[in-house]
Amino acid sequence: MSVARTPEVPLSALVLTAGLGTRLEPLTYVRAKAAVPVNGETLARRVIRWLTSFGIGDFVLNLHHLPASIAASVGDGSDLNARVRYSWENPVLGSAGGPRHALPLLVDPSTATREPRTTSREAPAAASQQPFLIVNGDTLTDVDVAAMFASHRRSSATITMALIENPRPDKYGGVMVSDDGWVTGFSRAGSAERGYHFIGVQIADAPAFASLEDGTPANTVGALYPQLIASDKHSVAAYICDASFRDIGTPADYLDTSIHLAGTEGDRMKAGLSNRFDPSASIVRSAVWDDVTVGRRAELNECIVCDGVHIPAGARYARCAIVPAAGRLPRPGQRIEKDLLIADF
């Protein structure tokens, strides 16, 4: 596929979509986090559509948890004017192990296949020549990728991380940055050291991951990047910007972001497939997924109603996530009502 590319952007992007999404439970009982629809469009499709606006047309998505939900949403990417392939992980390999496993797809996409691969112990020889994007699959931002890549090139960094002022130091860990723009370390949420907030977009030169053993779980912020910084203080650069950032971390965050986007894009929160709503039902500021039935005089206020849910006639729910119980035992903060699992937020 031929895609007109913005000058000076990476050729390919790895979208990290393999995570378990535990903070988003119970929504991730039903779909992988990147397959969750936000105002009618899944996170994975939103990320790809945003990056194609810069002319990036070659994508790899890593898969582990509920992979079919992501593949069903994105497919081969052709309707997004993109080429999408998949890097399979079992076990899930983490923020550094995932990129290491995907290197053969990212640095030599013309020879890759869509099938699970046998483990390779050596990174491709061409790795040193090809920087690529790494984007978290739950990232909603508008960072200028072209400007970021120009900064990466000027700095000769191995890694460049997109950062904003930390909006919630009590909630988000910090990235510590020197006066001349180099990442010096990382702090936990609530730390007295006030750092910047990483918004899930980075540019990497492939050798940063080439030393890792393929198929072995590894972490970036918790292990690999501190090692890079220790060996060369000019290895990880900060790209500090004022880009927007919307959180999808918890069900409450997800609903708030969906409502916000519905107000700016037009309300598509109830635009799922094969839904059946009784005319007398009231559905207010609620996200409704696919194959949902809402019965007579039922009331939903600021709810998340996941695939396959039947809301019985006369039921009333507010500020909760609703998924099919499917034989699950409720966890703390959850309850079972007939065939539904309810989680208040």
Summarize the structure.
By secondary structure, the protein is α/β, with parallel strands linked by helices. It has seven helices and 24 strands. It has two domains: 235 residues, Spore Coat Polysaccharide Biosynthesis Protein SpsA, Chain A, CATH 3.90.550; 75 residues, no CATH class.
What tags apply to this protein structure?
single chain, about 350 residues, alpha/beta, Spore Coat Polysaccharide Biosynthesis Protein SpsA, Chain A, seven-stranded mixed sheet, five-stranded mixed sheet, 7 helices, about 30% strand
Structure, explained:
The structure is a single chain. The protein is α/β, with parallel strands linked by helices and 345 residues long. It has 2 domains: 12-246, Alpha-Beta Complex (Spore Coat Polysaccharide Biosynthesis Protein SpsA, Chain A), CATH 3.90.550; 270-344, no CATH class. Helix content is 21%, strand content 28%. It has helices at residues 43-52, 67-74, 94-107, 145-155, 207-210, 220-231, 251-265; strands at residues 12-16, 37-38, 41-42, 58-63, 83-88, 131-136, 140-141, 159-165, 174-177, 183-187, 196-205, 236-240, 245-246, 276-277, 282-284, 287-288, 293-294, 299-301, 304-305, 310-311, 316-318, 320-324, 334-337, 340-344. The protein has a 7-stranded mixed β-sheet, with helices on both faces.
